[in-house]
């Protein structure tokens, strides 16, 4: 007997089940289209057999007149399959990026906000989608990360995203859906060939398939190779970065890279390492031109002040160290009186410390404390080191110039009794003063 078209698909869902911890729910991302309706139907069978809890989520983007039809279809389908459905209504921000990208972002935010930690979301993307994603990335001139397309599995925001059918062609899904007499909604925007993906789907890929019948499989396979190469590069970059970050003994908290050691690497390695460090620090990676400009300046003179900026991040070179950071907002004028105890919020984060004792037994009530940005010219009396200019101390401690401008000093009359880098780093305290980490009063629930 010929195998049923959906047997292979069910087999893949059973493989996906093995990736999902028992006791946790599986969710189907249900758009109402053919692929995800089929996914729901077959997942319901597979999960029932395996006695695993199944749920579904539909995101209503509210973007088109048909949105309510999609939602109603998803509701009916889930009711018949006895699968609990969550509908998330999202507001899509259409300003700035393209509408498809904005809808996708809103959708993923809804997935992350809805699924409890530990659960798994199954998405119905398939081989043809992967081929399109690969081509779109290639047409944007992407590197291996972009060409890798969609991963089979991704762990993010405490949930797992899984695409069980990434190796199956759309034709096989259509056949299975027909054999099951399934109903689904056709998204009218899928026909709009002014959208890049639709143009590829309806115009470009059919032409490619005429000459290369296995085009989708080949393109998806290239994406798979790119994904493997990308994973290898990531592994290599982690090791290299670890080595570079530990060259300098003083480099605590992996704050900077040794620029001289970085510049001794080949250009492709430099690019990879800077991009990887950005990703590790949760910063956007620099566009090509900015990256080249930064790398050209790696060997700048020790006293040169180099700052290369791009959307959402900046790189600074100082004393042949490369620092990557979020852009620094200009500081507002600010100062505050303080009793030394209450949690104090500075414009750049919580102070994070409180005073447990003051020098020369003076009391805050008689000599109020004043907290300001460092103005320059402060002197602090240090235990066993005597009176020291804060400026000299900063130079000796090799605190970078942009951090020096963002320090807070605690003054009592004209005496500096503490220097703090918000949020929460105590640099120096005066002899006789004792700062302790801020403790917060217990909040009682009404
Ligand atoms: N509005 C939505 N709500 C929930 N999941 C969605 C939604 N839109 C897309 N998805 C999920 O993301 C996958 C890929 O989305 P894409 O836009 O390529 O598919 P589609 O053409 O809308 O629907 P389908 O893949 O079901 O035919 C879908 O298969 C589905 O699992």
Characterize the structure shown:
This protein has 446 residues and is α+β, with helices and mostly antiparallel strands. The protein has three domains: 5-216, HUPs (Rossmann fold, 3-Layer(aba) Sandwich), CATH 3.40.50.620; 246-325, Chorismate Mutase Domain, subunit A (Up-down Bundle), CATH 1.20.59; 335-437, no CATH class. It is 39% helix and 21% strand. It is built from 14 helices and 21 strands. The chain has a six-stranded mixed β-sheet, with helices on both faces. α5 (127-139) packs across α9. It is elongated. The relative contact order is 0.07. The chain binds adenosine-5'-triphosphate (ATP). Adenosine-5'-triphosphate binds next to α2 and β2.
Task: Give a brief outline of the structure.
This protein is α+β, with helices and mostly antiparallel strands and 446 residues long.
Largest sheet: 6 strands, mixed
Ions, cofactors, ligands: which are bound?
A: adenosine-5'-triphosphate
Strand order of the largest sheet: 3-2-1-4-6-5
Q: In oligomeric terms, what are we looking at?
A: single chain
- The tally of strands reads 21
The amount of beta strand, in percent, is 15-25%
* Average predicted confidence as pLDDT: 90
Provide the domain count.
3
What name does the CATH topology of the largest domain carry? Answer: Rossmann fold
CATH architecture of the largest domain: 3-Layer(aba) Sandwich
Spans with pLDDT under 50 lasting ≥5 residues?
A: none
Reading off the top of the CATH hierarchy, the class of the largest domain is best stated as: Alpha Beta
What is the CA-atom radius of gyration, in angstroms?
29 Å
Number of DSSP helical runs: 14
N-end to C-end Cα span: 68 Å
- Overall 3D shape: elongated
> So, the CATH homologous superfamily of the largest domain?
HUPs
């Amino acid at each position: 007997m010929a195998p049923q078209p959906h047997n292979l698909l069910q087999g893949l869902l059973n493989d996906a089940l093995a990736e999902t911890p028992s006791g946790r729910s599986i969710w189907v991302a249900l758009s109402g289209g053919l692929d995800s309706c089929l996914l729901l139907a077959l997942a319901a069978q597979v999960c029932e057999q395996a006695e695993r809890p199944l749920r579904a989520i539909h995101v209503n983007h509210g973007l088109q007149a048909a949105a309510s039809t999609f939602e109603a279809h998803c509701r009916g389908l889930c009711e018949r399959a006895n699968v609990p459905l969550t509908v998330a209504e999202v507001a899509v921000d259409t300003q700035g990026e393209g509408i498809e990208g904005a809808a996708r972002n809103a959708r993923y935010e809804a997935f992350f906000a809805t699924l409890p930690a530990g659960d798994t979301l199954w998405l119905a993307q398939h081989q043809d989608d992967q081929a399109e994603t690969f081509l779109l990335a290639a047409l944007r001139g992407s590197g291996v990360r972009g060409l890798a397309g969609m991963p089979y599995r991704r762990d993010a925001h405490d949930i797992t995203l899984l695409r069980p059918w990434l190796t199956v062609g759309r034709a096989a899904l259509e056949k299975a859906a027909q054999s099951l007499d399934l109903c689904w909604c056709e998204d009218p925007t899928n026909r709009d060939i002014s959208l890049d993906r639709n143009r590829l789907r309806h115009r470009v890929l059919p032409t490619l398939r005429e000459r290369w019948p296995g085009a989708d499989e080949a393109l998806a396979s290239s994406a798979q190779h790119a994904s493997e190469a990308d994973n290898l590069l990531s592994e290599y970059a982690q090791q290299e970065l670890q080595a570079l970050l530990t060259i300098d003994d003083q480099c605590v908290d992996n704050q900077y890279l040794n620029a001289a050691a970085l510049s001794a690497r080949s250009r492709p390695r430099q690019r990879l390492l800077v991009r990887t460090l950005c990703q590790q620090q949760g910063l956007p990676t620099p566009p090509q031109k900015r990256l080249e400009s930064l790398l050209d300046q790696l060997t700048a003179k020790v006293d040169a002040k180099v700052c290369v900026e791009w959307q959402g991040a900046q790189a600074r070179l100082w004393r042949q160290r490369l620092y990557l950071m979020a852009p620094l907002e200009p500081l507002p004028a600010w100062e505050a009186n303080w009793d030394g105890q209450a949690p104090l919020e500075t414009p750049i984060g919580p102070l994070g410390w409180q005073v447990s004792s003051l020098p020369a037994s003076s009391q805050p009530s008689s000599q109020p404390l004043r907290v300001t940005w460092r103005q320059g010219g402060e002197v602090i009396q240090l235990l066993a080191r005597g009176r020291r200019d804060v400026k000299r101390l900063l130079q000796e401690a090799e605190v970078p110039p942009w951090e020096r401008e963002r320090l807070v000093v605690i003054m009592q009359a004209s005496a500096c009794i503490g220097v703090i880098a918000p949020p929460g780093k105590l640099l120096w305290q005066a002899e006789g003063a004792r700062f302790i980490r801020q403790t917060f009063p217990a909040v009682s629930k009404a």
